[in-house]
Structure formats: C-alpha cells, structure tokens
Known about the structure:
Elements: H1 4-13, E1 19-21, H2 55-61, H3 67-75, H4 87-93, E2 107-109, H5 131-148, H6 156-162, H7 173-183, E3 185-186, E4 210-213, E5 217-219, H8 222-231, E6 235-242, E7 248-253, E8 260-272, E9 277-281, E10 293-297, E11 308-310, E12 314-315, E13 325-327, E14 329-331, E15 341-345, E16 351-356, E17 364-370, E18 379-382, E19 389-394, E20 400-406, E21 411-418, E22 423-431, E23 440-446, E24 451-457, E25 459-466, E26 470-472, E27 478-479, E28 488-494, E29 499-504, E30 513-519, E31 528-531, E32 545-551, E33 554-560, E34 567-573, E35 577-585, E36 592-598, E37 602-609, E38 612-621
Parallel strand pairs: 7-10
Antiparallel strand pairs: 1-7, 2-8, 3-4, 4-12, 5-11, 6-8, 8-9, 9-10, 13-35, 14-15, 15-16, 16-17, 18-19, 19-20, 20-21, 22-23, 23-24, 24-25, 26-28, 27-28, 28-29, 29-30, 31-32, 32-33, 33-34, 35-36, 36-37, 37-38
Helix pairs in contact: 3-4
Amino acid sequence: MATYGEIRSALEGAREATWQMDPEASDNAPVRVYALGVPNEDQLVPAGDVPEIDLTALLEAHPTGNQLLAARRAVLGLPTGGVEVDEQLLARVTPSAGADEAGLPTTVDWRNRWGTNWVTQVKDQGGCGSCVAFGTAAVIESRVRIEHAVWCVRSEGDSHDGQGIPCAQGSWPNTYFDWIKSNGIADPACWPYRQDNAPYRPTPDRAGRTVKIDGYTETGSVADQKKWLDTVGPLTCCIEVPDDFFSYRTGVYRKTVSHIAGLHCIAVVGYNDSEGCWIIKNSWGTGWGENGFGRIAYGQIRIDEFTKQGVLSTNPDPWTKRRLHNGNFYEGGNGAGHRNFEMLSSGGSQIQHWWREGTGGFGWAKASVFGLDAAVCPTLTSTTFNRNFECVYTTGAGRLHHWWLDQNTGKWNDGGIFGPPDATGVPGFIQSNYGAPGNLEVVTRLSGGRLQHWYRAGSWHPGPVFGANVAFAGATLVQSTYGEQGNLELVCTLGSGQLQHWWRDDDRADKPWHAGSLFGSGIASPAVMIQGQYGMATERDHGNFELCVAAGGRVQHWWRHSGTGVWTCSAVFGHDVATVTGLVEGSFGFNLEVVVLRTDGQLQHYWRGGDGWHEGPVIGRA
C-alpha cells in the first residue's frame, strides 16, 4: 500500500492539486485503507444507457408535501402536488448564488438548504464491504426528512444482513434498493449494524418499524442528476477508489495516482458548479475527509460514468413518528403520498373514525364507527404491531377501553376494558420502547385529582399514583429523547388553572416521577403535547415540546426550549374553542396541525405555517 510520503509527492507534482491530505502524516507511514464493497461493474448501469428522465411525470405521480420543495419545483415549471406556493416561498427558494441556463442553482447542499439540515450524520462501515448499505440508507434517511419532516435513522445492518450478505462480501445499489422495496428498512433497535456475521434475527415487530419505498429511479446524465438534487434530494452513486483517495482530507478531489483499490458506493448530497464538484457523504467515519464528507471533481474517478440512484416516495413507520402526534389525531402512512391524516371523535358513546387524503383536495371523510361506551374523545396512536391504529378512551363507567384497527382487514377490534374504577377525562396513551413490540403506556386522572400510570406488557398492570389537585390529565404523554431509555413526560392541568409538567426518570430502576415546571394560568381544559423536530439540527439533538390548550375560547400554543427548558406561549389563536383534541407535526414542512372541538360541537382544523396560524376547515360534528 502507498505511504503518505508517496501521496504527498504525487500531490506536489500534480498540475491541479486542488485537495490536501493530513499535513502531519508521517512520510513513512502507510496510508490507512478503508473497506469498500462494490465487487465489480457487473450490475452498474452505464450512465449513457439510461434515457432522460421524465421528471414532470414522476413528480405528478409522487407529489411532495414540503412547501419549500414545491416552491422550488414551481420555479422550474414542475408539478407542485397541490401545495400552495406564495411569493414569500418563491423568494426564499430563489438561488442566492445564481442559476445556470436551465434555471438550476449553481450550488445545492442538502446539509444546509434553506437554513435546514436534511442529512443524517456520517457513520462508519468499519471493516465490512457494506458501503452500499450505507449509501442507500443515507438516501432514504434524507428523503424521509425532506418528505415527512422527521429525522429517521435506518439500520444498514438490517438491509445488509437481511439479504444474508457476509461482512466481507459486497453488492450493488440496485440489489439493495430492490430488497428494500420488497422488505422495507428497519431502525437500529430492531436489528443493529454489526460486523460478526451473526444470524439475522430482527425483533418480532419488524414489519411495523420499517420505512417502505415505492421504488427508485436511475439517473444518467449530469443534467438529470443536478435537477434531481435540486428538486428531489440526495442520490446514491458508485466510484472507483485510487490509493490516494484514502488519504483525502479537504478540498476538491482529483486523482493523482494510477493504482485503483476497488469500487465503492457513496451518497451525493449536493454539487457546486463554481468549484466543479459533487458533494458526497462517505461511510468511513468522521476522521476521513471533511468530517466524513468530501468533494469530488466532476468526471473524476468514474463518478459520472455510472447511473446515480434516487428515491422519490418514502413511507415512514409509526415508530419513527411516535413523538410527533398526540390526542385524537395522527398522520399515518396511508394514501398516495403516505401522509393521510387519521382522526377519532366521540360526539356520544360511539367513536367515529375520520380520514383526510394527504394529496389533492385535502377533504375529510368518514370511515367506520365502533364502540358504545365512550365518555370522552379517544387518544389515538399507531404501533409497531404491523402499523395498526390503536386507541384508548375513558368509558362512562370510569374504566379505560382499548381498541385497535387491523391494517390487513381495516376493521376495529375490541382490545378490552382495563384500568382503575374511577378514571376520568382524556387519558395519555403511547407505545414505549420497553420490549419489542413495546409496551403500551397510559396515564389517566383519577376521580380524587391524582394521576395513575398503567402499562401493558402482555396484560395490563397498574403503576404508581402521583400528583395532586389535577383537574385534567389530557393527551400529553410522550416518551421523550431525554435519558438513555427515554423519559416519560406529560403535562396536566391543575385545579389552580396552571399547567404542571411531570417527568419520569426511566434510567433509574425505581423509575420515580418528578414534578417539573408550572406555567400558564386561567386554564380549565386538557392540553395536548408532542415532542417535535424544532431544535433538532441533527438526529441526535432534542426536539422542543409543543403544547396546545384551550383557554377563554381560544387556543394557546406553548413550547419548551430543548436547551433551557423554559416554557413560552408563542401564540393565541382561534375562536369558539371548547377544547383542543389533537396535535400533529406532519409532513407539510414541519407545520403544526391542530384539531379543536368548538363550543357548537363541531370539529375544526387549524395549522401553523411559516407565517403563523391559519384557520382550516370545519370537519364535521364530533
């Protein structure tokens, strides 16, 4: 293998030395060699063999919910998918560094596009020939972030080991994408990335915790690839790796040596015409390149010789979105855009299931009716039990009633009655990460003004009673990103009219509940709370808590800063509001979506965009 001194000499002798290696590397030291993973060219498609893609037809078939992306497409005369685009959005997506003759920006970088990061952090494939697992997973992670506004870390081990590929063996992008199209790709807790050729044994609930894709697209020409990067997102591609590529530290890489170590798969997250390069994400850890990223000059190391693959449509699993919804309202994976809204209401003793198509006219429609004993609005979620919808509500007799919808049959099934004899009000209800499938967790108010935790691990079990002077519990229970296990957190309404934050220390064996901040005043209704994506610059950061509650016939929006822990009321909106029933942060560009019950018994939708809160349609009678 080459030494750093040999590479240094090659760089010094190159006419176009546009990149650097580690200046402190010893001349006599051998260059560190990283694992590759594309065995040969057999299944790589020459770029010239692929016709120009019909991007208009593709985008019509797979419309976006991302307003910024829709605006970018509108600038180029491409379909926007029914998403409203205003002058403010158009101005925001106009390239600040200029555009080429085709109207494309001269620079695209999804690590910081429109002020937001859409790319997960760099990982390390270690000694396995699994680069394709990392390149394909990186594209899917970014596409979920772009289309569904949520960080979504996928397990390279799931797609690699799921195919039965040994650590030392490589593969090709189309093989991986074909497998993921048929099987989905799970999260690391379902099956982690490992390098010991262990038998593939994912958790039993894998079917309910995999991101699905509708397929993938081969892009051939550089023009098509730049248009894809501008209007869709990152691409996977394959390159050859000369010996000097291992030593790359920074700059725009151009080959300086002749010996080729092999073929490798990476993700392309952008381009820069002024520098004449692609911006790439590698899988050799953050010690290589520019913190794991790099820049490769156009046409170098065969980067433009083969097709680059992109994914249009992703369907994230409920486990990915588990913190982004609460109350009677949920954004699921049904519908052409995989972002239908689902909602439950109870105007009387029965439960009405509603849904809203995630593309097109966005009209609400009624589905099935079930139950006969509801006293309050149900709390709805979707679980890793095959993505089934599940709900819990308080009965007129003061018990808790569980129902679940079988995604295979579309029918609601009675999950049984459980809980204390004196439950009151709207309960909190989630699936946690205790076990796989995870336990169901409920916190309900008791008639004496205290809270009680219940959990289902095979059967329902009572947990501790805590709190005092609680007027309303509400659909505020979340398992947050705080702590190694993830703390349970909730906010209840006190008899004093204040809101009280509670959290459980899930890293302690005794799991004690702790009283947190008091905030707000004059409140006499239950709140709804989520942990959203605001504050998450990367997938490893903590998102802010978002809370909506009715007071004085209007809705107060509160949020808790993920750094300071301070609660702030950011807006008051709406009219004739009796109570907030549901809160979602969905696929429409990080918008908050709220459903309220009005004083006239009607349900109404509100939503928050970049310019504030908007009054949506009246859905119907609860």
